[in-house]
Amino acid sequence: MAFTGWQLDSEIVGDERSMMKKSKRKTLPAIPRMTITAMILLVLSAGASAQNLPPPGSYQPIPNFTGVGAGLQFREAINERFSGAQPIAPSITTPTFANLPPEQDGMLLYCENCRSATPCVSGGDGAYALGTRGQWACAGAALEATLNANGNKVSNLASGTINGDALAFGQTGAQLNTLSGSKLDGSDAIANVSLNGVKNVRAFGATGSLATVTATTSASNAVITVNSIADFKVGNWIKIDHAGAASNANPPTGVTVVPNSYGMNPNPTSDITKSVANGGGCEVDSQTGNPAHNSACNVSYTYQIVGVSNGGGWSVPTAAVSTSAGPATLSTNNNLLVSWTGAANDIAYLVYSCSGAGCTPSLHAVVPHAGAPGATAESYRDFGHAFGTDEDFGTALGSSAVVQDLFAQITGVNGVSVTLSIAPAQTGSFTMRHDDSVPINAAISSICSHTATGATVGGIVEFPATSAYPLGQSLNLYGCWGVTLSLTGAQNGDGGHPVELEWHGVTGGTVINMNKAADSRVAGLSVSGINGNTAGVIIDVDNYATGGGGDGLATQHDTFERLALGRAGIGIRVANQSAGNVQNLSFHDVQISNPSNGQGGMWGYFFGGAGQTYNEEIRGGLIQGHDVAIMSDFVGQLEIYGTDFEQNKIEAWTVDRFGGGADGNMMFSGVTSEDAQYFIFDTNNVGSNFIIDATRIAGAPGPNGFLMQLNRPTAIKSSWVCGGGTTVCGISNGNAPNPQPIFSMQNSYGDPSPFRNGDGSNAPDSMIFTEFTDWLASGVVRVGYLNHASNIEACSNVGTVSANTTLAFSTNSCQKLFTATTGLTYTLSTTGLVADQVVTIESYITGAIAAGPLWATSSGAIKWTGGAAPTSSIASGSVDVLRLKWDGTNWLEISRSIGDH
Fold this sequence. Notes:
The protein is mainly beta. Among the domains are: 14-83, no CATH class; 97-137, no CATH class; 212-237 and 414-430, no CATH class; 253-382, no CATH class; 796-900. The protein is built from 4 helices and 61 strands. The strands form 11 sheets. The chain has a 19-stranded parallel beta sheet that branches. It has an 11-stranded parallel beta sheet with strand order 20-23-26-28-31-35-38-41-44-47-50. A hairpin with a 2-residue loop joins strand 51 and strand 52 (780-781).
């Protein structure tokens, strides 16, 4: 280094200089001559002029040593200043950038016009230049060890622009890449953050805590006192049960109770919807071994109903309404229809009931409001299955209205004093609990898009496991496109459900509202209903406008998978209010079950209320412990594959038609039914058909002897229907004298004679289940289109006829029929034929007759070979075989074989 501004003391004598030079050569042989000279100039600066000296006290000058030992004293003084024992005040050389000398590692200069950069560049206001690693560095070198700010902050950090940039607090677009842990025990996981567009509900303030405390409130005072602060803290959203405003719920009106059963027992006409005036009412039977056996119709039942509002308010109970003609055993065969008119503001109804004289009603069912809000017709059919509870009042019936709940945010905590954003409206002690619905809805809103046009829309809202999230209000996906609600991480197989949404909202409320939601998904979550309040609907999917931002969407393509849904009025409700289609929904591995508390609910699925659903699909999963597994009111197409039905009263109840006209089906493929009194109960004969394929239907039916009551065309193939030939396992063809439906069987097993006519007789019908045959109804052969293989067409067996008969060939070109009656006419129908279609008729004579059948056509003429019709056989055991071709206008005879035996 070159040091300037130092002066030699003029009094130093030559001898001393000589001594210093000798000392230098002996003690510092490795230091270059220029450097030693600079050091000497430094230490001999004691006599420098005043203008070049540093401030007083900043260093200790070397005095003038004289006498014996002066040289040693000089050396010691120099060593003290180099060692730091005495301070020095050097002035560093200050060249410009252009005049920087060749770099030497360790050399320090001050560059007058350099910028703070590495390597040094010109154009700045000056910077220290340090020779390091072969270049002049005018800024700090890169870190090679952990930076410790010792509790201090780094401020004014610029936004990141490239990989490796530091992240500022709250910086938009910041992300973590290739983040991994090292402990391998889960303790190094990062929680409560949202990454890569996936919204973590914990990052929005969800607690995942089921903690509750007792809150003591004073009306209009936002400061409350709790018995313990538990894990509540500032910023938490909370619900205080029934500490809000006065109830805005209204009691329903016009409550009635009507017994319903069959017209006769034990083998009735299969109509469970008849009133007393229409041949219904309560009926007794003698089937003592059947679980639904009813021995008397003189039992009293009493009902009272409470209306519930969305804010948690309850109405006063209605007056008690009773019947004294109820059955001893409630079942699908002997039930009580409770009806009322809904009231404004009510979203659900709590049905309380009891049996016996002077009884006290308790909660029997939680029924969500049907249709649009307001004065609508409501009903509940009591099959004897009770379910539902309220976490504040249990199942006991109160005598007065109940105020609404209070929803607020904690804004301050001081010991056990808690300040809320909204003051309670009531004075008293109430239960306070977390309400994670608010932060979860905030997470949903952050990615909810009301249009699918333009850039990427939607996203994922994740629920970290293992946690239970308390919900005081509905999760709302109204008008959202492409939003997924899912547990964090992948879940393989059925496994457990480590994320529980625990409903603490209003009893009878809706847990997840998916009105106007499209291309959205709910996966891997559980709403068991074991604890908390019983919901009216767990998942509600609809398509009605509310005047909000999502009205432009049509509900479609929503997916539900790996869900565990338990106790509720309805597990999944589709198109309750909608006037337009809710379509293309898919339900995969959805368990709508009977939880450990032994209570399933009223209906598992409900499809179609005010409007139509179309092309819905259920795959796998379970429906267990409900009054009705699937309630179908208005369905264009509903397909069920591989679903397990267990311990439901009725598997499928169809109320309305399929499709707007006749364009829909309800199809069961590969399903299993256990212990239902009905597999299908069909109350309408309008619309399309049922298809039952590769299905197992087992268990004891109701005492009427009908496993299925069908009023519309039905195809059953490759299925097991009951077993062992029992006479109480059967299929009713509808309420006589309704026309018989079209049945088609192929390769089916179980009871070989499952059909009963529905006229009160329990004797098996002549229909044999394993036979390839078709029904004859109203003189027209109804050909089952599933009977025959597509490549080999066997003749359809019309059966024995004793009246003039029309033969239809629209679905089978070969017909055979038997008769022992004289003078019949067989008419060849041309409906549904195609040009050049060839048909075959086999006419069997089973008893000697005076005149054989004559031949006619419903359109055109029959052009007989030789110009004359054949003379039909009359001898018993004869068979006549005719082959004709339809050319689009007339029949042309191809061949005949008369009188074969």
